[in-house]
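Late entry, evening session. Most of the bench is empty. Finally got around to the prediction I had been postponing all week. Sequence below, unchanged from the version circulated by S.P.
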Amino acid sequence: QVQLVESGGGLVQPGGSLRLSCAASGSINSIVVMGWYRQAPGKQRELVAIITSTGNRVYADSVKGRFTISRDSAKDTVYLQMNSLKPEDTAVYYCNARLFSNINYWGQGTQVTVSS
């Protein structure tokens, strides 16, 4: 099993920045991909960014050039640096970990609100 604990959400003005953190514990050696997804009210959950165990990154088109996903292996933590935030980035952001077995684990979610 894997436990994921997110932090770093909040309220920010348009154009501002936030950094989300996701600390993993448990069977972390079985993780092949970690990433961030988001879900806005009335919408489906969507991929924001993922990073593989080999360091490959994939971003949603809507966040390319503004968001950066990174990881600190020593701390078993994945980060999402979000710059130039827009109101349409408002959502609950969820950390995800996928294992070799294709089992997915999710964090509890953290609210990001972009508003003036």
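Two things to note before I forget:
The mean pLDDT is 95.
Residues 93 and 110 are 5 Å apart (CA to CA).
Will write this up properly tomorrow.
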